[in-house]
Each structure stands twice: as structure tokens, then as C-alpha cells.
Design a protein that fits this description.
Length: 342
């Protein structure tokens, strides 16, 4: 069984205990990577599934720090996602995550929004064909439309267009155990009809979702990667402020994108790093369905992340709207998206 082979890669050394953001808050062995792997092994071997088992599986942010530092090469986030799918198939998905799925399938987004995703677009006329597509994502469409507008203004001169009927990329569903194939297929159909070969997004969750669940022949770029390659043609004015940068887990550890955002930031202002950054950057607390399912836990993780911000930093910059949304709830300083510096 493939799942059991993945589970048995964990040698129970406990290295992950020192890094797991959820374990740091909750303190139970069952809420770190080693504990979750052991619990899933038990499930595969017939362990009776009760509420405590479900909570163990659903409180992981899938931040991937455990996988990054694991000396045995185990991949707990993938194991957790497989466990969540197992629970969903058995009808044991949490009510909150089931509702998230139902809303996303019905309305094309998990935020229960009815209005058009392109409500921020002043000129709705879009070309029928384009090689590059800016995938806006749910959060920037509905929570940060000013970021969507600014991003498209930066991208449009390079021949980048939009999907006319974009829906959720599927990340929130797949991360919490649901099947996002309807949403994914809907987006793929439009991408194919447009003839696009490159998808550009400003959301770390969308970025990871496209890389994992969409066709391999599509090139996936974060906005920062696309813009840094064209930085000489951008009119970036240096500002006399000091900022710090939060690495989104699903852009950094998942996608290996660390330097492109920093290179753009340094063009615009002065950067000072947070206490943890790059490969060992700590999580914002919002991913993996934790923000929706366990908001109090999510904010406690966010508070610990904000405590790593240098005193001299005047702003906190990130490259993911979900990270921004979670961190700005507990940060006394302003949290902004990378494109707002440009």
C-alpha cells in the first residue's frame, strides 16, 4: 500500500517536535508531524476514528517545515492530505470543511461570494486568445481587489490576460480532503480555449495548486517571478522605508520561490529578514484549512510569527493574500502585498 510506505518513512525521531507550529501552541504529541503519522498508521491498521483522531488530522497547516527538516525524508503534509481524503471518503470530514467544499462548488469560491470575480476590472473587454493568463484567485478577487487591479496593471503591458469565468483553483478543497476536480476542469477548459501556456498568480495557494493538480505542460509562475525577469522595464522608485518579508509556505518550501520577491523588494526599499526565513520560515497559521476550522489556533500561530518581525521594520510584506489576511489580524504594523510596493 502506497500510503503505508509513506508512513513508514517516518522513523519517529521527533525532530519535527521542535518545528511544528501547531505543536508549539497545542503541545499534544498527536498534534506534531510524528504524532499525526502514527495516528494515520493506526487508521490504516484499523484504529477506531473518533473526534480526537479527526482533530489530529485536521489541525495541520500543511506548512511543510517538518518535511524540510526531516532527516529520514518523510513527507508528513502529503500523509496528512491523504488522511483527510480517507476521512472524507468515510463521511468523517468536519462540518466546517464539508461546508467549505459545498460553497466552493456551488459558487466557484469558498468565501460565499455572489458577485463577479472581475468586479474590480474597469475595462471588461478581454482578448479571446492569450499566451499568458493572470489567475487572480479567490482572496485577491474578493478580499483584496485593489491588489488584483494593481497586479493586472503591471502584467497587462506584457500581453497577459484573464480568464473570463475563473473559479477557485481547488487548493482549499484538496488540502482539506475534498475533490476539486470540477473546479479544476472548469479552469483548464478556459485555459485551453485561450491557448495559454503560462499561468501567473499572486497567491501561494493557487501557485501550489496549479503545480500539483493541473497539466504538466502549463508553466506556473508567481507574479514576482514574472516581474523580476522584466524588472528593467518597470518604473520602480526606491522608497525610504524598512520592511520585512514573510515567506508563504506554499510558495517557498513548496515551490522554492525565495529570491524573486526579495529581489523586487530590494529594488523598492530596504529589506530586513524576520527571525526565521527562507527554508525554515515559520507558518502564518492560515493554511491547510486551519484558519477556517480552528480560527483561534490559527491566530495564535500568527501571533508567534509576528513576534519574529524585526523592530526596525515599518511594514510587513508577503506574496500571498491568505498569509496577509491572517497576519494582519494580529500585526500592529501594516501588512501589504508585494505588488503594493511597486
Amino acid at each position: 500500500m502506497a500510503d503505508m510506505r509513506s508512513v513508514l518513512k517516518c522513523v519517529h525521531c521527533g525532530t519535527c517536535r521542535a518545528y511544528c507550529p501547531v505543536f508549539e501552541v497545542l503541545g499534544w504529541e498527536s498534534t506534531n508531524a510524528r504524532g499525526r503519522v502514527l495516528i494515520y498508521q493506526g487508521i490504516l491498521e484499523g484504529l477506531q476514528i473518533d473526534d480526537s483522531v479527526i482533530k489530529t488530522i485536521t489541525t495541520c497547516t500543511t506548512c511543510g517545515l517538518c518535511e524540510e527538516i526531516c532527516p529520514a525524508g518523510a513527507a508528513p503534509p502529503s500523509i496528512v492530505e491523504n488522511a483527510r481524503k480517507y476521512l472524507a471518503e468515510k463521511g468523517l470530514q468536519t462540518d466546517v470543511h464539508k461546508e467549505l467544499c459545498d460553497i466552493a462548488i456551488e459558487k466557484g469560491n469558498p468565501l460565499d461570494e455572489e458577485k463577479s470575480r472581475l468586479h474590480w476590472l474597469e475595462e471588461p473587454d478581454l482578448p479571446e486568445r492569450a499566451e499568458y493568463v493572470y489567475f487572480v484567485g479567490c482572496m485577491n478577487s474578493y478580499r483584496y481587489p485593489e491588489v488584483a487591479k494593481k497586479t493586472f496593471e503591471l502584467l497587462k503591458p506584457y500581453g497577459v490576460s484573464l480568464l473570463r469565468d475563473e473559479v477557485c483553483c481547488g487548493s482549499p478543497l484538496e488540502r482539506t480532503g475534498s475533490d476539486a476536480s470540477k473546479l479544476i476542469e472548469h479552469n483548464i477548459k478556459q485555459i485551453r480555449e485561450m491557448g495559454a501556456h503560462t499561468i501567473i498568480t499572486g497567491c501561494a495557494g493557487c501557485y501550489a495548486s496549479f503545480r500539483k493538480y493541473y497539466p504538466d505542460d502549463l508553466k506556473i509562475l508567481h507574479v514576482a517571478e514574472f516581474l523580476i525577469e522584466r524588472v528593467d522595464s518597470l518604473d520602480i522608485k526606491k522608497q525610504d522605508i524598512i520592511v520585512s518579508y514573510h515567506d508563504p509556505c506554499h510558495l517557498g518550501r513548496d515551490g522554492g520561490v525565495y529570491e524573486a520577491p526579495r529581489d523586487l523588494i530590494r529594488k523598492a526599499t530596504t529589506l530586513v529578514e524576520m527571525a526565521s526565513h527562507h527554508e525554515t520560515s515559520h507558518c502564518c497559521g492560515g493554511g491547510g484549512g486551519v484558519r477556517r476550522g480552528y480560527p483561534e489556533l490559527s491566530l495564535k500561530i500568527a501571533e508567534k510569527r509576528i513576534n519574529e518581525m524585526p523592530d526596525e521594520a515599518e511594514l510587513l510584506v508577503t506574496s500571498c493574500p491568505l498569509c496577509r489576511s491572517n497576519l494582519e489580524q494580529v500585526c500592529k504594523k501594516r501588512v501589504i502585498d508585494l505588488v503594493e510596493l511597486l
